[in-house]
Amino acid sequence: MATAAATSEERDRDAMRRAIALAARGLGSTSPNPVVGCVVLDAAGELAGEGCHQRAGGPHAEIHALREAGSRARGGTAYVTLEPCDHTGRTGPCSRALIEAGLARVVYAVGDPNPQATGGAMTLRAAGVRTEGGLLAEEAEAGNAAWLTSVRLGRPHVVWKYAATLDGRIAAADGTSRWITSAESRAEVHRLRAECDAVVVGSGTARADDPHLAVRGIDGAVQPLRVVVDTEARAVKPGARVLDDAAPTLIAVAEDADTSHLGAETVRLPRAAAGLDIPALLAALHARGVRSVLLEGGPTLAGAFVAAAAVDKVVGYIAPVLLGEGPAALAGAGIHTIAEALRLDVTETVRVGPDLRITATPKER
After folding, report:
1. Which single residue of 69, 139, 214, 247 has CA 20 to 30 Å from 97?
2. How much is the pTM?
3. What is the mean pLDDT of residues 119-142?
4. Rounded (5°) CA angle 212-172-273
């Protein structure tokens, strides 16, 4: 028979896992704010209310959960994926709301690294609320990686997505690439786009594919900023699909490039040894409120991001196809010997239709 302590621990973990799942509902719609989930159990340990942060400027997760719980919150426990905020911005401090609701206990997963908002745990404890941190912190951090990266590193979180054959080719020798992966994998890419603030491609992809880069097939999706890294301002031609009004577009060009012919907003950046300075690009996007970037192509731009140590996660869609020739998924990453190889930790492998999706994170930062 399970002990009372074991039952309590299991209840805590189950409630926090539910809060983490709720937080994920805000991906793509809360930026530049974090995604947060909250579950409130009453004094008897029964579910009283739950909620998530749904959009920037709207009520925080704790407020949604407390409204649903009502008077049942008194004497109960709140489980929150991020330390409750302790400041007044567009909304009031959640720490105060939890105190006023009469919670006896608050459990949070990740401490708030934002110096403007941190301190909620201290405020709760000072008011006599039993407050604990660190429950399922790793899982909660993974779900809030974009916002945490932006606060800790001052740049957007970058996910590099690519599609390749089993022998690592992203196109055939003649340049054709439609379609290496399945319709199921391509549908997933639209979900990845919907969860990010910006989609970034390079001039090679712009020339070869004339990509659209907008989200399709997902109701209510907030369209990401479409970014083309076009150093010489020659790849994006009038009539390019990325210039339509389906989503906002930004063309990143060199400081001395002629942009008189471009029909889109531009940002001028310093040149690097090859192309544009990647840290400067990320800084410019961060200044615009971009907290998460989906890097979609191609091998040269991906190599520049890897060389700049600016890839936080890799999502590879591997098709059961062999080509033998054609461009590889990565080029110019500054890796010349096996000792310099960027080693990854595989966090997930999933079948997507006939393909395999591999998700990994760099071991070195």
Report:
1. 139
2. 0.89
3. 95
4. 70
Averaged pLDDT for residues 165-182: 92
User: For residues 145 and 117, which has the higher predicted lDDT (pLDDT)?
Assistant: 145
As a whole number, mean pLDDT of residues 23-27 equals: 93
How far is 181 from 354, CA to CA, in rounded Å?
A: 8
* Edge-to-edge strand list for the sheet holding 249-254: 265-269, 249-254, 225-229, 198-202, 292-297, 157-165, 313-319, 355-362, 344-352
Which residues fall within 8 angstroms of residue 111, CB to CB, at 6 or more apart?
83, 118, 121, 133
Quick one: residue 134, left, alpha or beta (phi over 0 = left, psi -120 to 50 = alpha)? left
Question: What is d(CA 117, CA 178) in angstroms, rounded to the nearest whole number?
Answer: 47
Residue pair 215/192 in contact by the 8 Å Cβ criterion: no
The phi, psi pair for 353, rounded to 5°, reads 60, -130
Any idea what the Cα angle at residue 232 is, between residues 229 and 233, rounded to 5°? 70
Q: Which residues are catalytic?
A: 62
Bond into 179 cis (ω within 30)? yes
C-alpha to C-alpha distance for 305 and 299, rounded to whole angstroms: 10
User: CB-based contacts of 347: which residues, under 8 Å, 6+ apart?
Assistant: 142, 359, 360, 361
Query: What's the CA gap between 73 and 287, in Å, rounded?
Result: 39
With a cut of 90, say whether residue 13 has pLDDT above it. yes
SS3 196: coil
Kindly state the helix (H) or strand (E) to which residue 163 belongs, with its residue range. Answer: strand 157-165
DSSP 39: E
Which residues does 285 contact at the CB level (< 8 Å), separation at least 6? 156, 197, 198, 225, 227, 293
What average pLDDT does the structure give for the chain? 92
The terminus-to-terminus CA distance of the chain in angstroms comes to 45
Give the Cα separation of 287 and 219 in Å (integer): 28
Query: Within 13 A of 262's CA, how many CA atoms are on the CB side?
Result: 22
The residues near 336 (Cβ < 8 Å, ≥ 6 apart) are: none
